[in-house]
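Record now logged for everyone:
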Amino acid sequence: MQPSHRTIRLTAIALGVAGVISFGSAGATGFQIRENSVKNQGRAFAGSAVSEKDASVVSNNPAAMVNLDSTTIRGDVTAIDLTAKFTGNGTAAAGTPLARPMTGGNGGDPGDVTPVPALSIVVPLSGSFEKLTLGAQLSAPFGLKTEYDPNWIGRYSAIESEVKTIDLTLSAAVKLTDRFSVGAGFVYERAEATLTNAVDFGGLICRMSPAACAVPNTPYGPQRADGLAKVKGDDTGIGWILGFQWKPTDRLAIGYSHRSEIDHDLEGTVTFTKPASVAPLLANTVYNTAPGGAALTTPSTDTLSVSYAFSDQFRMMFDAQKTDWHSLQTVEIKRFDGIDISKEEFQWEDTMMYALGAEYDLNDRFTLRGGIAKDETPTNDTHRTPRLPDNDRTLYSVGLTWNANEHLSVDAAFTRIQIDSPDVDIVSTSGSTLVGKFKGHANLFGVSAQYKF
C-alpha cells in the first residue's frame, strides 16, 4: 500500500528518532544489557540480587552490599560479539506502478565487537554507622551497535544504529538484623544515539510529481537517487532502585530488587545528504537539516534471586527477572517546528528471563561456575524491524574466579547466546518492503578484577 504524502515527509524523524528505541542488544532481549558483572555472567546471571563478594550489587540489588565487609573496588568489561545474517528480498515503491525489486546484497554481518564496561565501589561504614553500607557504580544498562552495508536491500530501513547509555548509580544499604537488609539507590542516566538510513529520493520525486518521471531518460525513479538521513540525539533522566535481602538460614539467601522506569525526551538533529539530481527540487523543504525528537522510557525491571549452599564448596542460584517493555507501545515523533507529528508502532510486551547457575570452589584459590538462561523477546512479527531483528534466546555460560591473594580476585567468563531466527516483514517510510529471516548468535567474553581493602 502506498504511504501518504504526509507519511513520506516524516521519513527522517520516523526512521531516525524512533530508531533510537528500536535498537537492539546482543547481551539481552530488547536493547537491555545485563553485563555489569563478569562473576554474574559466568552463572548466566543467576543469583544477581544475592551475590556474595561482588561489588556489582550496587545496581543489581543495593541491599546485598552488606555482604561485603570492607571497602571493595571492582572493574568489569565484557566484549559482545554479535553475528547475524539476513536472507530475503524486498520491493522498492511497493504498491505503486513504479514497484520493482530492491537492489543490493544481504547487508553483511551487522554486528561488531563492542566492549561494555562497569566500575563499582562499596564502602561499609564503621562506628555509629556500622550497619550502613554505601556504594556507587558506573555502568551501561542499555544499547549496542549494528551496521549494515550501505547499499543492502534493507537500506531504507536501517544502515547504522548506535545507542549508548551511561548510568551513575549511588546506593545505600542498611542491615536491619543479621539476616535481613534493605537498600535503595539513585540512578542518573545519559542516553546518546546516532542512526542512519538511506532515503529513496528518486521514488519520492515520482510520487510527489509523476510528470517528472514521465520524461524519457529521467534521472528520477525508485532507487535512482538515494540519499542519506542521519539522526543524532541525547538526553538525561533520573530513576531509582529498591531492594531487600533475607537470609533465613546460613545456607539460603533470597533477594529482590526493583529498578524504576527512566523517562527521556530525546532531542537531536536530522541531517540529510541529497544527490545533486534531486537537491534543487527539494530545496527549502522538510528534507533540510532540522531539529526533532521523541519521548523514550527505558523499562523498569523486577528481579528475584535465590541462592542455596549445598555444602561449603557447592552453591546453586536462580533468577527470575521481569522487564516491563510495555512502556514501548507507540512513539510519538515530532518536528520541533510543529510541522509534522507521527507515531511509530512497537507494541512491545513484558518479558521474563529465567536463569539457573552453580558455583564450585575447587580450593581457596579457584572457583568454577556455569549456568543456563532463557530470555524472552518483547518484539513481535508484525512490527519487527532490521534495527532490532530480535527473538527469544538461550544463554549458556561458564566462568572462573582466581583469588590471587586475600585482597585481589580476577574473574573470567564466556557466554554463548543462541537466538531463535526472527522473521521481518515491514514497509519502510520510503515505501519499500523488506521480507525475510535473520539467523544469528552472540559470543560474550568477560574479564574483571576486584580489590578488597
